[in-house]
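Exercise: predict the structure of this protein bound to arginine.
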Amino acid sequence: MKKANKLLVMAAAMALAACTLTACGGGSKGDTLTFGTNAEFPPFEYIASDGVVGEFNGIDMAIAKQIADENGMAIAVENMEFDSLLIALQNGQIDAVIAGMTATDERRETVDFSTPYYTATQVMIVREDSDIATAADMADKKICVVQGYTGEVCVQDMGYSYEAFKKGTEAVMELTNGKCDVVVIDSATAQKYVSDNEGLKIVEDPSAFESEEYAIAVQKGNTELLDKINKTIEKMLADGTINELAVKYTEEATAE
Ligand code: ARG
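Solution:
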């Protein structure tokens, strides 16, 4: 090997070593806490120019940052499709999932959940002139949901046929275009979509949609991380921080 080439190889090897030591790209396990999310879910997570963690903003991102901060760890956020989050967690690609994720019994079979930090429910978004007043009224309507969300499971359980989209914004576009009649999605996110788009309203039916609790997911049996997460969440619940964050990011997400 020529000398110049040898030098190049050495430099590359050193750069690689430096990378693994200092966590280039947010990698080094131990002092970086890597959260997976799907930043398509305002006010919990969305992309913003000046987010609380890089380009990521929202209630969940502020909670994740505080968990990392209180444990003296750096934070990294990996944005991926909602459907991929629990698989990435099981693979060890990420340490935890924070994504407005409802702690369901089905999900509990594969992961462990933190203390819940937010209570939500599914609602129906319809056009203002819609005659849909209850969940039962969806029977003969064209229903849109987001793939893998609990809203999809609800509509499935009711026995209705539906169309599933990758993103909430896509489902809402179908609704504003008149191609579907109702979108079933989580309450706080629904509010954001209704304030962003003219001519839409929210219809609630608490007797048809049970309340849901958002929690952070970790690998099954990772009690060490779960304890750290729970400590911060319980503190943020007790001192009102999570309430404040909910108000703040609902306003910000709506203003954007
Ligand atoms: N709460 C619903 C669920 O758990 C929707 C969550 C969607 N979150 C997201 N970051 N896209 O299925």
